[in-house]
Every structure is written in structure tokens, then in C-alpha cells.
Write a structure and sequence with these properties.
- There is one protein chain.
- The protein is α+β, with helices and mostly antiparallel strands.
- Among the domains are: 109 residues, no CATH class; 100 residues, Phosphorylase Kinase, domain 1 (2-Layer Sandwich), CATH 3.30.200.20; 101 residues, no CATH class.
- Helices cover 63% and strands 7% of the residues.
- The strands form three sheets. Strands 1, 2, 3, 4 and 6 form a five-stranded antiparallel sheet that branches. Strands 5-10-9-7 form a four-stranded mixed sheet.
- The protein is globular, with a radius of gyration of 30 Å.
């Protein structure tokens, strides 16, 4: 049942959509079936002049509807698997253009959250905001010891506004799925649920502070990226204080060039930072638009990035990491069968999918991309094409992968704006190949064994007991009693199985002992002995635990 406040908000949305000539969306989704006669008689419907393209009018309508719909449009722009290209491109232009709220209110909220007067908490506090966005705004300040900081304060009443508009979005999604013929392809309920998680996470500034702290730890000592320090004693759910950074905004090309900045190095470092976050750290800043990226040009020959706004970060399942890197490398080598196999192994498409059919689909979608020189091919476009293949074969892709794709497109856009000749593949492929070697090589395997050594050692302790019991069961009278009443064929089958089990025990035990001898003699390299011992022990334990 739709509440009165939600119904009122929906009518407001309707009026603005019609005002921008988007009544076709209203009619297509049947969002206002009970009011359809009022709709058709409304002067807004008949006398509104449509100016601009459909995509431009949709962007303008969302901007007028307010910050929650702006952010929703920004999220939608990342789902290029769902949207027409023109709409996705236009929604990507959405910006949080909102006026600041009074500094006195910000001061009062800080004092309420931190429990002390601002004069006691800071050496100075500027009530004029440095920047204002839809969720929060930022003020300059200094700590009592003089260090410059920024104070991020949540907008007043945001939780209530967001709660109301989330209700509206859920109601619209439910109506669209019920009445809209294309809803199955666009999956509005899924998209709104994804957005709800993202927006609610951004309301918790303690979460953002934790994200910043983790990213800073990952890049501590880096010559490529600086992440500001968080002052935890001054952070609460609606207030966050961190080191103030100084630098040139990445979009200010004139200032960067005037300072003699090494633009090529800056662009290549951006790609390196991104792929390091995704694969080496598995923790990436997922809101890397130009407004959140600054450059320290104190040493123009070695420019250093500085990032802000850590409300949205992404992580990947280790299996997705592995198969994502494998897909990129296979695509680079045009090994479409490998791409198909990886899609199945990763779970991106159903397990029963025929490899030859999937390979043909991969070839059809990816081969035209190679009409361009490799340096002009977009990683983000390749990833989108891979997701399109999965969609065609009825697989649901995890939201984090779309977050990755959106961030990758941002990074590519920034990098090529800086340096149009940037060869992203040349920069990224060595990182991917090195990571794959580290992830799948012997050293990685032994590291995994070392991490889980307690479980392995416990299994090895049980091995002699399991072996003795298995041998006894293979030769004692239990086997005779069980087979006396069986048919001759059953007896022969069981004897063959018994001999196979006995042979397995003998061979595996010999291999295990051989590995132990290798290790005890100190033969170099030592890893073959460990590998032989561990593999034979685990195989034997697995084999003997199987039911007869």
C-alpha cells in the first residue's frame, strides 16, 4: 500500500517528467493508471514543448528532482548493460549541483555529534564551506596543534529525505515490473535495491573514514598516490575529520601544463594505481570522477595523485578477480575459447552452457573491437561486452563487477583526457600477467598451504589411523560376510574395488613417504617434497573417507 507522502511525491515526479516532455516514460510504465484520464486532460501533456534529446531531457528532470535522483541517475549510468548508449552517456554528466547549507547549522551539528564546542575541538573553523554535495558538505579547519584538516558534515534531514525517496523508488520499481513490458530486461527492483545499499552506505561517515584508512594503509609510502589521514577521535556517524590535502584538480589541464607536469607519467600512473587496487589490494576507490582527484605538483617530474571522498569502494570475490584477469589476457590474445571456458568456470554463465556456442558468441561480440588499434580499445568496453555475453546466456552479474566497470571507464576517461596517446593495455597487461603468475604459481600455492597448515597438520595426524582401518576393512572377515549372500557378479565387482582401494593406499603411502624422505634429506629445491607429501596425503584422506 502506497502511503500519502509517497503518493504526493510520485505526483511531483509525474509533473516534472511531463514538464520535460518525458510523458512517454509515464505512459509506458503505467505508473499512474488510476489517474490516466487526468493525465490525458492535463495541459502539461498537450502544450509542453520538447527541447533537446530524450537523454538530455531525462538528465535535466533528474537534476530538478533533487540529489537522491541525481545519485540514482549516476548509478544508472554505470549500468550500460541495461541502458541505451545515449541515455547512459548523458546520465554520466549528472553532477551534484546543490547549494550549501548555513555554516552555523554545520557548527551546531559538529558540536552535537562530538559533544564539545567547536572552539575547544579545533584551533580554527571556517563556517564558509569549501565544497557542498548532495549528501554532505566540507569545511576547512585546523586542529588545536595547527595541522590543517577538513570537516565533512552530513546534511540535516538527509536520512528522512532519503528514506522517503527510497520508498518512492521501490514503489515505482514495483509498478514498472507489474505493468511495463520491458521491465524484465531492465530489472527495476534489482537496480533500486543496489542503489539503496550504495546510498545508505554513504550516510555513514564512520564507514567512509574506515574506507579512507584502509586505502591509506594500502598505499603508505607510495610515490604515486597520497590518501589523507583520518583523525579518528573526531569522527562520528555524521561528522568526519581528515587531513586537508592541497593540489591541482585533475581536470585543470592548463595549470598542470603550466607547472611543467609530466602528463604522460601522470596518466600511466593512474592506470597502475587502479589495477594495483583491484588485483593486488582487492580494495578500490569506486568514485574516481575528476572532482575527487587532485595532483600534487610540488615535483612536476614526479606528479603524485591525491584522492578524496571514500564513500563508495569496491571489492571482488577472489574467484572473480582470477577470472577477470584471465578474461582480459585471453581477450588480448584473441583466445575466444578460453574466454568462453572462463565464463563457465567463473559461474558467470550456467554450468550446462555449451562451450562452442559461447565461443561463437564471444567471437561475434569481441572480434569487431579489434578494428581499432589496441591502444584505442577501452578496457571498460571489453568488460561491458563480456557482461553482455553473460546476460545473453541468462546469468546475473554481481553489482560489484558493474561498480568496477564504472570505475574503469572513469579512469580511462581521465587518463585519455590527460594524455590522448595513453596505451592502457601496454600499462595494464604487465600488471595482470605478474599478478596471474603470483596468484597461480608454486609460491602462491605454498603460501595458501602455510596459511591453512593447522588444518593440514590435523589431517596428517589422522592419516595413519585412517590407513590402518582401511587396510583392516579390506582384508578382514567383514568383507566375506558381506559378500557371501551376494551374487557372483557383485562379488567380482567388490573384489575389484577392494583391490583398487588397496593399490591406492599402497601407492599414496609410498608417495607420501617419498616426499617425507625428500624433505628430511634437505634436498634443494625443497618444494617438490612438500608438494608430493601434501598431494598424496590429501588424496589418500579423500579416497579413504569415501563410503564403500
Amino acid at each position: 500500500m502506497i502511503s500519502v507522502r509517497v503518493a504526493g511525491r510520485m505526483l511531483t515526479i509525474h509533473r516534472k517528467l511531463v514538464r520535460y516532455g518525458l510523458d512517454d516514460f509515464v505512459r509506458a510504465t503505467h505508473l499512474y493508471r488510476p489517474l490516466r484520464f487526468v493525465f490525458f486532460l492535463s495541459p502539461w501533456t498537450w502544450f509542453t514543448r520538447r527541447r533537446g534529446t530524450r537523454a538530455e531531457r531525462l538528465r535535466l528532470a533528474l537534476e530538478e528532482l533533487g540529489p537522491i535522483f541525481v545519485k540514482f541517475g549516476q548509478l544508472l549510468s554505470t549500468r550500460r548493460d541495461l541502458l541505451p548508449v545515449d541515455i547512459a552517456d548523458e546520465l554520466a554528466k549528472l553532477q551534484d549541483r546543490v547549494p550549501p547549507f548555513p555554516g552555523a547549522i554545520a557548527r551546531a551539528r559538529i558540536e552535537e555529534e562530538l559533544g564539545s564546542p567547536v572552539t575547544a575541538l579545533f584551533g580554527s573553523f571556517d563556517e564558509t564551506p569549501l565544497a557542498a554535495a548532495s549528501i554532505a558538505q566540507v569545511h576547512a579547519a585546523t586542529l588545536t596543534d595547527g595541522r590543517p584538516v577538513v570537516v565533512k558534515v552530513l546534511r540535516p534531514g538527509m536520512r528522512e529525505v532519503i528514506g522517503r525517496d527510497l520508498e518512492v523508488l521501490h514503489a515505482l520499481a514495483a509498478l514498472a515490473e507489474r505493468y511495463w513490458s520491458d521491465s524484465r530486461r531492465f530489472r527495476p527492483k534489482e537496480v533500486v535495491a543496489e542503489y539503496e545499499v550504495t546510498i545508505l552506505n554513504e550516510l555513514d561517515l564512520m564507514r567512509e573514514a574506515a574506507n579512507a584508512s584502509q586505502l591509506r594503509r594500502n598505499f603508505l609510502g607510495s610515490t604515486m598516490l597520497h590518501v589523507p589521514e583520518v583523525h579518528w577521535d573526531l569522527c562520528r556517524r555524521e561528522v568526519m575529520v581528515m587531513e586537508r590535502i592541497h593540489g591541482v584538480q585533475i581536470s585543470d589541464m592548463a595549470k598542470l601544463r603550466a607547472a611543467g607536469t609530466d602528463i604522460r607519467k601522470l596518466a600511466e600512473n593512474g592506470v597502475t594505481i587502479f589495477f594495483t587496487q583491484v588485483f593486488s589490494h582487492n580494495f578500490f576507490h569506486a568514485d574516481m570522477h575528476p572532482g575527487n582527484i587532485f595532483v600534487d605538483i610540488s615535483d612536476p617530474a614526479n606528479p603524485k595523485y591525491a584522492a578524496v571522498d571514500f564513500g563508495i569502494v569496491g571489492t571482488l570475490d577472489p574467484r572473480d578477480q582470477l577470472y577477470l584477469a584471465g578474461n582480459f589476457l585471453a581477450f588480448f590474445e584473441r583466445d575466444y575459447r578460453r574466454v568462453a571456458v572462463l565464463h563457465i568456470e567463473s559461474g558467470w554463465v550456467p554450468a550446462g552452457t555449451r562451450v562452442d556456442e559461447l565461443e561463437s558468441a564471444v567471437r561475434t561480440i569481441c572480434e569487431p573491437i579489434f578494428n581499432k588499434p589496441l591502444k584505442e580499445i577501452s578496457f571498460g568496453l571489453v568488460l561491458l561486452r563480456l557482461f553482455e555475453i553473460a546476460r545473453r546466456f541468462q546469468m546475473q552479474i554481481q553489482p560489484q563487477l558493474f561498480l568496477l566497470q564504472k570505475t574503469l571507464l572513469n579512469i580511462e576517461g581521465v587518463g585519455r583526457d590527460l594524455y590522448p596517446e595513453l596505451d592502457i593495455w601496454k600499462t595494464a597487461l604487465p600488471i595482470l600477467k605478474s599478478w596471474m603468475r603470483e596468484r597461480t604459481g608454486p609460491r602462491a600455492m605454498f603460501a595458501h598451504v602455510r596459511e591453512n597448515w593447522a588444518d593440514v597438520a590435523e589431517a596428517l595426524k589422522l592419516l595413519p589411523i585412517i590407513a590402518r582401518r582401511a587396510v583392516r576393512r579390506a582384508y578382514d572377515e567383514e568383507l566375506v560376510i558381506r559378500t557371501e549372500s551376494a551374487s557372483l557378479d557383485a562379488l567380482r565387482a567388490e573384489l575389484r574395488e577392494s583391490r583398487r582401494r588397496t593399490d591406492t593406499i599402497i601407492v599414496s603411502a609410498a608417495a607420501f613417504l617419498g616426499g617425507i624422505v625428500w624433505i628430511s634429506l634437505g634436498t634443494q629445491p625443497g618444494w617438490p617434497g612438500w608438494l608430493l607429501s601434501l598431494a598424496s596425503a590429501l588424496f589418500l584422506a579423500f579416497r579413504l573417507r569415501r563410503p564403500d
